[in-house]
Amino acid sequence: MPRPISASVSVSALAHNLAAVRRHLDQTAAAASGLPPSIWAVIKANAYGHGIEQAVAGFSKAQGLAMLDLDEAVRCREAGWGGPILLLEGFFNPSDLDIVDRYHLSTTVHNREQLDMLARARLSRRVDIMLKLNSGMNRLGFSPAAYAAAHERAMLLQQQGTVGSVGKMTHFACADGPQGVNEQLGVFNSVTHKLPGAISVCNSAATLRFAEIAVASEAQAHWVRPGICLYGASPFADAEAASFGLKPAMSLRSEIIAVQELKAGDSVGYGAIFRAERSMRIGIVACGYADGYPRHAATGTPVVVAGIRTQLVGRVSMDMLIVDLGPIPAAGVGTPVSLWGEDGPSVDEVAEAAGTIGYELLCALAPRVPVARDV
């Protein structure tokens, strides 16, 4: 019998979350008497751990898909996706452009070297690009001083038949916090407002809280790039995913594989960091950091056993973690455990207890955990 741990990915939840974002954008656009933006569903990092093929199925009604990895882009085409695919970091060497050309990919262009490679390329069709501005995050993108010249060169490549459409994009650093987007948006607008092309500025946080800046018009197309919210987790520390009508798409489950009876003063697990204050029953669960559960999840991290909420105690080890069975006196070997997801705590709750974010937990699900596709 295989070890009793598994994950499930709900394609219907992925589709539900995309539809929830779509409704939010449609309502915002209607209130502003504008047109709703198109959606690039971001499926980088193996669709945030959910699987490329599951994401292609779940996001079938998105206008486009966006990711980093060329191999994942190819998998999307092989899975039947025929719409636009955007490479968020672009290409890295001239040979990558052969794949961009063969699979009809769109690409971000964020440095002079990429423009040089495009200028030397011999492609069978034009490649659509999004020219990225560094508006203050200081990761990727042309500086405000260099952007106009880069855009001019991209337009020249368009005239020469190498480049198709030329869009404008940036990435917000603080859309999820109190600083917001105004400073970076001001830089973006001041640099790009006279330049033609579609616009893409909104990640998950900006899509949910600042959707009005993505309202399109007859003259100006907009694309948003939601990621984590499509998987049913929140981009915000102060708002739960459910408050936006989102459903968890990944559920991580296991079982109790042993029960121990502790006396007051007994310790639990490595480092003996937890000591029982009274007699208690604990359950040993077949899940640890080698499965992707965060090692630094503290005592008190929520866990659901047999449908009843309880807590983790002691230190998470490689293959096991320990839960308090006090609230579930009937629990024993084989009792089901929900670690996060549809019938457990949210992945954001677990992440907060571990001092991290839900993104990391979803992406860190280990290959040894079997994943079932739940339609």
Give a description of the structure:
The protein is of the alpha/beta class and 375 residues long. It folds into 2 domains: 11-244, TIM Barrel (Alpha-Beta Barrel); 250-373, Lyase, Ornithine Decarboxylase, Chain A, domain 1, CATH 2.40.37.10. It is 28% helix and 23% strand. It is built from 11 helices and 18 strands. Helix 5 (96-102) links the parallel strand 4 (85-87) and strand 5 (106-109). Helix 1 (11-31) packs across helix 3 (52-58), helix 6 (112-120) packs parallel to helix 7 (144-159) and helix 7 packs across helix 8 (182-192). It is elongated.
Gist of the model:
The chain is α/β, with parallel strands linked by helices and 375 residues long.
Quickly list its features.
375 residues, alpha/beta, Lyase, Ornithine Decarboxylase, Chain A, domain 1, eight-stranded mixed sheet, 11 helices, 18 strands, 23% strand, elongated
pLDDT averaged over residues:
97
Give the strand content: 15-25%
- Specify the oligomeric state: single chain
Number of helices: 11
Helix content: 25-40%
Topology:
Layout: E1 6-10, H1 11-31, E2 38-42, H2 44-48, H3 52-58, E3 64-67, H4 70-78, E4 85-87, H5 96-102, E5 106-109, H6 112-120, E6 127-132, H7 144-159, E7 163-169, H8 182-192, E8 199-202, H9 204-209, E9 222-224, E10 250-262, E11 267-268, E12 274-275, E13 280-285, E14 302-305, E15 308-311, E16 321-324, E17 336-340, H10 347-353, H11 358-363, E18 371-374
Parallel strand pairs: 1-18, 2-3, 2-9, 3-4, 4-5, 5-6, 6-7, 7-8, 8-9
Antiparallel strand pairs: 1-10, 10-13, 10-17, 11-12, 13-16, 14-15, 14-17
Helix pairs in contact: 1-3, 6-7, 7-8
